[in-house]
């Protein structure tokens, strides 16, 4: 009965459009009350859920991403990419994916990247003849890869839930899959652009000079290197790296690019505080939900059921989990998925002796796919709003992008070293 109340109340509240944080907390409270576990477990688990050292990095990385977004990084990266790729058919689609990948190394948030890149790229794409639905699809898919590119807030949350998977290992493990995801998006985007003659129209805009545009974009390109390089050399921990990223962004925005004013910084602090508060409230209330599920004793039966569902076959189980996470990813954000399902899925991974860094990156890759999969794709909603395209009009284009992303997922499943090689080489595993 307690298990039914826990999950039934959660689904019912979501269906009633109750915010996910409140749904998690209330469902946990109902189950705790029904099982007579003591209502004082609620505030204790809320505090325990957020009183974790790695979570200190979340507000800092959110602020760092906001600072770089406001500093005009996307425009500089656009000019640099355009100086290399030029104005041919499909060039803007490729540039959008490239710029999103670099922005992902700064913001780590899919919707934020989609908005930042889309604000610069979508108008340019439509001026060159790209249909709004196609432009929205490519931008949403490109933005989804950001939770794979370090620093990723999703990876930080996963490391809190799975302490054996450290933040540096996850950050480095996401690099190759993040680049692979971008390659898998470039192929269909370029193919469709050439096939349908998108882009390449005559324009009065001159091709930027390579060295000049590289000089302008240099400091933005250095940001991911500073963050990962500092952690690799031991100069600072992942949490300290978040603070370094903020200071680096402030120096670049205020003194190098000179695009940040005191008023901008004040607004960024408010926006970042609000975003961070939402994330940490979800984390805290999800702690109540997870504790209730664990104490009631429903995690192990569900994990065993999942294993039996695949007949004990590793291949069958991993396919079932990936399909399930893709469907869930259409409706929930990555952080919520980790908080709700990691307590259930990680025991399954441990039962098969899967590497938990590999499993975490795999989960994140699938969640990235869900972010631009209709009908409830958060990234696609952002890009459609910016272009005015209807969600249903994006389906013919999104299908191609999804097929190639799933091909990349297959490579990660068949060859785990695509995730684990770099952490092993750099000594993070």
Automatic annotation (TrEMBL):
Is Membrane there in the keyword field? yes
Q: Report the InterPro entries cross-referenced here.
A: DctM, TRAP_DctM
Q: Which UniProt keywords apply?
A: Cell inner membrane, Cell membrane, Membrane, Transmembrane, Transmembrane helix
Segments crossing the lipid bilayer: 51-68, 80-103, 133-158, 170-192, 217-235, 241-257, 277-298, 318-344, 356-377, 397-422
Identify the main location. membrane
How is it placed in the membrane, per its record? Multi-pass membrane protein
* Residues of the TRAP C4-dicarboxylate transport system permease DctM subunit domain: 7-417
Where is this gene product found? Cell inner membrane
Q: Does the keyword Cell inner membrane apply?
A: yes
Tell me which GO cellular component terms the UniProt record holds. Answer: plasma membrane
**Under the GO molecular function aspect, what terms does this record hold?**
transmembrane transporter activity
- Sorted alphabetically, which PANTHER family does this protein's record hold? SIALIC ACID TRAP TRANSPORTER PERMEASE PROTEIN SIAT-RELATED (PTHR33362)
What's the protein name? Answer: TRAP dicarboxylate transporter, DctM subunit
Species, as recorded: Syntrophobacter fumaroxidans (strain DSM 10017 / MPOB)
């Amino acid at each position: 009965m307690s298990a039914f109340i826990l999950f039934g109340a959660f689904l019912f509240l979501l269906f009633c459009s109750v915010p996910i944080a409140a749904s998690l907390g209330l469902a946990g409270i109902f189950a705790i009350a029904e099982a007579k576990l003591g209502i004082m477990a609620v505030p204790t688990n809320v505090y325990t859920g957020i009183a974790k050292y790695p979570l200190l990095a979340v507000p800092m990385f959110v602020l760092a991403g906001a600072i770089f977004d406001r500093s005009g990084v996307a425009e500089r990266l656009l000019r640099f990419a355009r100086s290399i790729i030029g104005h041919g058919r499909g060039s803007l689609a490729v540039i959008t994916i490239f710029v999103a990948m670099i922005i992902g190394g700064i913001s780590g948030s899919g919707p934020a990247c989609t908005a930042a890149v889309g604000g610069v790229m979508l108008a340019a794409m439509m001026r060159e003849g790209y249909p709004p639905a196609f432009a929205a699809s490519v931008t949403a898919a490109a933005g989804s890869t950001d939770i794979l590119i370090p620093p990723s807030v999703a990876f930080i949350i996963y490391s809190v839930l799975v302490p054996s998977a450290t933040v540096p290992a996850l950050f480095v493990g996401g690099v190759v899959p993040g680049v692979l995801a971008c390659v898998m998006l470039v192929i269909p985007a370029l193919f469709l652009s050439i096939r349908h003659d998108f882009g390449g129209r005559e324009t009065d805009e001159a091709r930027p000079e390579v060295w000049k545009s590289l000089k302008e974009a240099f400091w933005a390109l250095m940001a991911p290197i500073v963050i990962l390089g500092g952690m690799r050399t031991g100069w600072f921990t992942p949490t300290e790296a978040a603070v370094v990223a903020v200071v680096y962004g402030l120096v670049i925005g205020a003194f190098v690019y000179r695009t940040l004013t005191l008023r901008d910084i004040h607004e960024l602090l408010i926006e970042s505080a609000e975003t961070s508060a939402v994330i940490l409230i979800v984390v805290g209330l999800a702690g109540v939900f997870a504790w209730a599920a664990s104490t009631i004793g429903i995690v192990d039966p569900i994990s065993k059921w999942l294993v039996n569902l695949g007949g004990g076959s590793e291949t069958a189980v991993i396919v079932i989990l990936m399909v399930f996470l893709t469907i869930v990813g259409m409706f929930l954000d990555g952080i919520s998925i980790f908080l709700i399902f990691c307590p259930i899925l990680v025991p399954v991974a441990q039962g098969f002796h899967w590497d938990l860094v590999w499993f975490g990156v795999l989960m994140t890759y699938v969640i990235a796919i869900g972010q631009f999969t209709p009908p409830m794709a958060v990234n696609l909603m952002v890009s459609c709003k910016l272009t005015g395209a209807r969600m249903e009009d994006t389906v013919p284009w999104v299908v191609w992008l999804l097929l190639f992303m799933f091909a990349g997922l297959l490579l990660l499943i068949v060859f785990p070293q695509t995730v684990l090689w770099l952490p092993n080489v750099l000594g993070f595993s």
